[in-house]
Amino acid sequence: MHVEETLLFILAAVAVIIAMRWISEKTGLPAAALLTIAGITYAVLPGPNVELEPELIMTYVIPPLLYSAALDSSLLDIRRHLRTVISLSVLLVLATALLIGFGISWWVGGATLAAGIALGAAVAPPDPVAALAVGRRAGLPGKLITLIQGEGLLNDATALTILTVAIAAADGDGFSFPSATGKFFVMAIGGVVAGMVVAYAIRFMRPLRRDTLSSNAISLATPFAAYVLAESVHVSGVLAVVIAGLIIGHDSSRHSMAASRLQTTAVWRLVDFLLEGLVFLLIGQQLPTVVDELSNYTTATIATAVGVTVGVTLLLRPLWLILTQLLPRSLHMRLGGEADVAADAEGPYRTPRDREKALNGREVTALSWAGTRGVISLAAIFTLPASVPNRELLHFCAFVVVLVTLLGQGLTFAPLAHWLGLRANKTDEARERNEARSAAVQAALDRLDDVQAEKHDHVEDVAIEHMRKQLEVRLERYRRRLDLLEKADSDQVPASPQYEAALMVRRMTIEAQREELLRWRDAGNLNDEGLRILERELDHEERLLPDRR
Q1: Which of 211, 208, 244 is nearest to 225 (CA)?
Q2: Is 340 helix (H, G, I), strand (E, B) or coil?
Q3: Residues 293-299: contacts with CB under 8 Å, at least 24 apart
Q4: Rounded distance between C-alpha atoms, residue 131 and residue 72, angstroms
């Protein structure tokens, strides 16, 4: 395409992404599924189409998406549920890849075990983007959100590592389990080390990160640095990106400035919005390409290959979740991972001690249906070299799995979660936040006592007293809120007329100030630069207003 055509195509894609998000907000349907349908619709219309370039996707799209997801994840929660996360992101991915590999090699004529395992590795990792978006909107409990998020972060690394090993075997003398196992562990351990190296290198760059723009530039470059470092030494670049993101996200409060955190969060939300929309549009647009490649295969061969791939993908996940609940706890394989607080711990800094509690039937059902596949599956399968037998058939199988899970499971996940009655306890979450707020304000009051005890002048006394009154008012508000939450009978956050009234009054006063500044600007008494500075102050004040939780 010419430059002008490319620009028009990009603008049209952005317009579609915005439109599908608007429809998603109005209807409650997942944006990922809507964008995929839009991509398919465009693909069957006459006109230029965009073919998925796996190298570009794996190098320029997947690292920032995974890094952003890792920044938004909780390292402590993932560690708390580590058994479940490892079971789903490593063992289940490996089992899926092997079963599909053996099934394809047995039932599809001319297919090799290595090629089948490559297909299994490509379709094994669920894409958490669609499931998380629907799950959060449906109000799933935080435990399930953590499991979906943790699985989605680590399963890509497992699958792509298996895929690399399988491709090497397909190009070589065949598939050797000892050799493949050795390569897998080398790539995985190397990816972890590479991610840690980048994360701790970023920590030492703290002086450069005091400037907001420099901090954002470093943040945007970090996933690519981790990926390139790992790939240059032939280890897992995806795992390096995830590990770097988890560590940096965990240390963000200690090693970055407040202004940088606010802006970095906004920047990554925009990156996610555009890249996620783009990849789901690309998925739909691959339909003509994968269908046109099937002319050399019989209907029976296509049906067999698709049946094996889709069947293993859909059935193994719930079977795996059910069977792991039946294992004895002594094997350390049963899923769950709900934290139990040590009996001898006291105070707010209690140390969690892992106690594996089996998932209940509703949780197993929800996790079973949270297995939507995405662009990583297509990008991965498109990396197969032309020498791999039945390459075109493997492309189609992967595409069908993505469509079946993304549309079938994606569109029905929210109704299923609602039917199961799986909702987060909003009262408990609000109580936890308000307890933390109260503790933080009390720590500030204690610090004021220490400052007042030191030698200081009258000006400091006035400032200390003024701040003390503000903090005491805030602490009293939080305590009243906690009393209301303690008396709540349901899992919904109770309304507080006083709390709502206080927020409404503060928003009204901020809006009045903003309108007056605009009148000053329009009258020529304030220039635009001054308006932007003062408006930014009001915007930050308004942004800091808490919601009713």
Answers
A1: 244
A2: strand
A3: 293/392, 293/393, 293/395, 293/396, 294/392, 294/393, 294/396, 296/392, 297/390, 297/392, 297/393
A4: 15
For residue 184, CA distances in Å to 187, 192, 200 come to 5, 12, 25
Which one, of 340, 337, 348, 497, lies nearest residue 432 by Cα? 348
Give the angle subtended at the CA of 490 by the CAs of 488 and 495, to the nearest 5°.
55
Per the CB < 8 A criterion, the answer to whether 335 and 358 are in contact is yes
Return all residues near 320 (Cβ < 8 A) that are at least 6 apart.
87, 88, 92, 95
Q: Rounded to two decimals, what is the model's pTM? A: 0.81
pLDDT digits 0-9 by tens, 170-202 = 766 556 677 777 888 888 899 999 999 999 999
| Nearest residue to 229 (alpha-carbon basis) of 219, 239, 220 | 239
Q: Which residue has the tokens 């009148």?
A: 519
Q: Give the rounded distance of the alpha carbon of 331 from its chain centre.
A: 30
**H-helix or E-strand containing 341?**
strand 339-341
Residue 352 φ/ψ, nearest 5 degrees: -70, 140
The span from the CA of 70 to the CA of 154, in Å, is 10
Give ∠ CA 20-24-25 in degrees, rounded to 5.
120
- 75/269 Cα distance (integer angstroms): 20
343 SS3 class: coil
CA gap 477, 494 in Å, rounded: 15
The Cα–Cα gap between 80 and 140 comes to 18
444-474 in b/e form (b: 16+ CB < 10 A) is eeeebeeeeeeeeeeeeeeeeeeeeeebeeb
Using CA atoms, how far apart are residues 112 and 170, in angstroms rounded to an integer? Answer: 8
Amino acid at 309: T
Evaluated on CA atoms 123, 125, 129, 131, the torsion sign reads positive
Bridge partner residues of 339 (DSSP): 354
Euclidean distance between CA atoms 325 and 87, whole angstroms: 12
Q: How far apart are CA 65 and CA 525, in angstroms?
A: 45
Distance CA 230, CA 434 (A): 42
DSSP per-residue letters across 221-285: HHHHHHHHHHHHTTS-HHHHHHHHHHHHHHHHHHHS-HHHHHHHHHHHHHHHHHHHHHHHHHHHH
Is the Cβ–Cβ distance between 491 and 428 less than 8 Å?
A: yes
- The answer to whether the beta carbons of residues 35 and 17 sit under 8 Å apart is yes
pLDDT by residue (tens digit) across 480-528? 777 777 776 666 666 667 777 777 888 889 889 889 988 888 888 888 8
